[in-house]
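Re-running the complex after MR caught last week's input typo. The corrected sequence lines follow. Everything else is unchanged.
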Amino acid sequence: GAVVSQHPSWVICKSGTSVKIECRSLDFQATTMFWYRQFPKQSLMLMATSNEGSKATYEQGVEKDKFLINHASLTLSTLTVTSAHPEDSSFYICSARDRTGSGANVLTFGAGSRLTVL
Amino acid sequence: GENVEQHPSTLSVQEGDSAVIKCTYSDSASNYFPWYKQELGKRPQLIIDIRSNVGEKKDQRIAVTLNKTAKHFSLHITETQPEDSAVYFCAASRGGGGNQFYFGTGTSLTVIP
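Corrected-run output:
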């Protein structure tokens, strides 16, 4: 089945630094990837939709300059949290849609990245 | 955009009993409704999905029903087992292309042995 790899799984950084999280589709091409944020015991909040070769589409209330998304290839999307602050500490999960075969339109998630900003 | 509401937020059942989780959605154009199971510290995993041209779908102990008119869909788990304990999320999507998935707020299910 479709596999999505996400790393790092856990990152700790100092306030003011930037952190990059990578999301890769390993065995399929993903023209669209989604980035979610999940607070403890809460739901998956859609942050942005990452489109290969074009600008990401951000959800209302999500700062574009704060959360930079790049989708340079059909298998890789990156999320960069710029000038991170403690309130950015969270669990970030990417997902990709496999549009081919029997799994068409099925959303597959990465394992998530836990960001802790000191 | 789409607004997905999910109830209850927590649910405890005795092993062997049934569990039902309900979701409503607001966007009448949504046509794909998956359910995900997330165990503690792990990624969400798809357990069952339903498309708008179907009213019910079953996979062993899990079933999902969809009422397009009322814009609600439900997850039914029968003969619950302790390993069913997890957080369950419903989602709605327009399907196709880059259309987004919007998730419900989650239901924490505990199956008591």
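None of the earlier attempt is carried over here. Chain A touches chain B at residues 31-32, 34, 36, 41-46, 49, 51, 57, 59-60, 93, 95, 97, 105-112 (CB under 8 Å). The first strand of chain A starts at residue 4 and ends at 7.
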